[in-house]
Amino acid sequence: MPFLLIHETFQQTIQGEGYWIGTPCDFIRLYGCPVKCPWCDTGYADGGGAIAAQKVEITDLIAELKSDRVVISGGEPFFQTNLKPLTEAILKTGKKISIETSGSRWQLLSETVWITLSPKEHLNPEFPVIPEFWQRANEIKIVISDGKEPYFYQQYLQAESPLFFQPEWNDRDRTIPLTLNLLREFPHARLSPQLHKYLQIP
Ligand code: SF4
Known about the structure:
Elements: E1 3-14, E2 24-30, E3 54-57, H1 58-63, E4 69-73, H2 83-92, E5 96-101, E6 114-117, H3 132-136, E7 139-144, H4 149-152, E8 163-167, H5 172-185, E9 189-191, H6 195-199
Parallel strand pairs: 2-4, 4-5, 5-6, 6-7, 7-8, 8-9
Antiparallel strand pairs: 1-2, 1-3
This protein binds iron/sulfur cluster.
The site of iron/sulfur cluster has 12 residues, from loops.
């Protein structure tokens, strides 16, 4: 049976970020990411060597789902070869899917899968955004750390996709005011506050 490498799963929480903020959902957090963002909040800043991967079959992942929406995050979901079979199995149950990605590896998935593109090319040019993602993404979410990020991607931000700026949490006393200033410069962007962290839920 096909399996994926899993970081963790949890059910019956809410989406704390972006377009679907506040929506009840389950999370499947896939293992592994080579991008090494310095502020990574899931443990992959150094490549994730301290995190234990669990091999879990798709049928077992489906069996534990409880919410109508399933968020597949990482790590970096698009690096796993069985991502597409996982999405197809979830869609067969009638549930909706959101996937969060840095966009650095491409796979063709059903158009019904909501894709959140959170580009990290400015942090690690070895993992540029695959061009197809700028068209395919249903929303773009940019983590604000030094405030230069929206300008780095500015040529791609004219698309119809909803655009969110998310203050980097670890340094939020500095990044929240920085992000609020950027919202004045980019009036079509909206704030993504990581609501789950304020509510102290997974
Ligand atoms: S792309 Fe995401 S999971 Fe990977 S290191 Fe950066 S923040 Fe962490």
